[in-house]
């Protein structure tokens, strides 16, 4: 469908009658057009100029409306490319030790992983404390970019204790790290500790995701323990905030 179809629909949309700010009325019209399927997930929106001319809105009004839709996760911006309708988010259950490749594929989507950097580096005092190691002890460090249906959605940094997984960096790591740890090293996880907080993607992360610096993000920090309480894996994931939905189903405790 041509990207001008939404602009055409907005041009004839009736103005808001409830006294809402103009940018909210425009936000509602664009959201309605997306909801009605006038532009599909992953498809490019009309340019800001097209929206400005098509709706009779001021430039600042258009930008405020688009920023509101971005904050809500309905659209996202590709740096130097424009605005696109966000694909459906994947569901992440932090109570499972299912790897990214597994839970994305289970939801009928196509996952991919690209290795950005591999090294064995000395642990900082903060990270050493997490692993209960002496600062300066070597740790395997993996940096990877992960995509869903061809769209980069997260950049992660994973640390693993070499004493638990010697030679880990010699294995192919552009797939499931969970599978390698399980099948090659016999490592299983008994407990996950997950912390999440909103963030703004700094320039280096945003560049790797093809986003603009300052784009809303979600930082997910996961520490995985084996049955003996040893830290198996420490993972920092910087997600596009519109790409993931967290779901937890737990028994209620007093």
Keywords:
about 250 residues, alpha+beta, 6-stranded antiparallel β-sheet, two-stranded antiparallel ribbon, 8 helices, about 30% helix, about 30% strand, elongated
Précis, in short:
The protein is 28% helix and 30% strand.
Could you walk me through the main structural features you see in this protein, from its secondary elements to its overall organization?
A six-stranded antiparallel sheet has the order 4-5-6-9-8-7. Helix content is 28%, strand content 30%. α2 packs across α4 and α3 (48-55) crosses α4 (59-71). The protein contains eight helices and ten strands. With 254 residues, the chain is α+β, with helices and mostly antiparallel strands.
**Largest beta sheet, briefly?**
6 strands, antiparallel
- How many separate helices? 8
**What is the first-to-last residue Cα distance?**
53 Å
Shape: elongated
Order of helices and strands: HHHHEEEHEHEEHEHEEE
Instruction: Write down the oligomeric state.
Output: single chain
What's the number of extended β-strand segments?
A: 10
Task: Classify the secondary structure makeup into a structural class.
Answer: alpha+beta
In what range is the share of β-strand residues? Answer: 25-35%
Biggest sheet, spatial arrangement of strands: 4-5-6-9-8-7
Estimate the helix proportion, in percent: 25-40%
């Amino acid at each position: 469908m041509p990207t001008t179809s939404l602009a055409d629909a907005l041009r004839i949309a009736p103005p808001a009658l409830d006294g809402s700010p103009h940018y909210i009325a425009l936000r509602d019209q664009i959201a309605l057009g997306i909801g009605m399927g006038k532009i599909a997930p992953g498809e490019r929106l009309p340019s800001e100029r097209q929206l400005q001319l098509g709706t009779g809105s001021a430039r600042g009004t258009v930008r405020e409306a688009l920023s509101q839709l971005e904050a809500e996760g309905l659209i996202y911006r590709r740096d130097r490319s424009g605005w696109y309708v966000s694909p459906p988010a994947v569901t992440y259950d932090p109570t499972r030790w299912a790897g990214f490749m597994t839970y994305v594929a289970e939801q009928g989507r196509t996952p991919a992983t690209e290795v950005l950097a591999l090294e064995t580096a000395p642990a900082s005092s903060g990270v050493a404390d997490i692993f209960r190691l002496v600062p300066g002890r070597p740790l395997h460090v993996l940096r990877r970019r992960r995509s869903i249906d061809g769209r980069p959605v997260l950049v992660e940094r994973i640390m693993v204790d070499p004493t638990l997984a010697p030679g880990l960096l010699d294995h192919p790591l552009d797939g499931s790290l969970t599978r390698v740890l399980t099948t090659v090293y016999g490592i299983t996880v008994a407990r996950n500790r997950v912390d999440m907080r909103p963030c703004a993607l700094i320039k280096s992360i945003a560049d790797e995701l093809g986003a603009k610096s300052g784009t809303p993000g979600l930082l997910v920090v996961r520490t995985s323990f084996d049955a003996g309480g040893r830290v198996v894996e420490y993972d920092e994931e910087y997600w596009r905030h519109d790409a993931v939905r967290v779901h937890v189903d737990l028994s209620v405790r007093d």
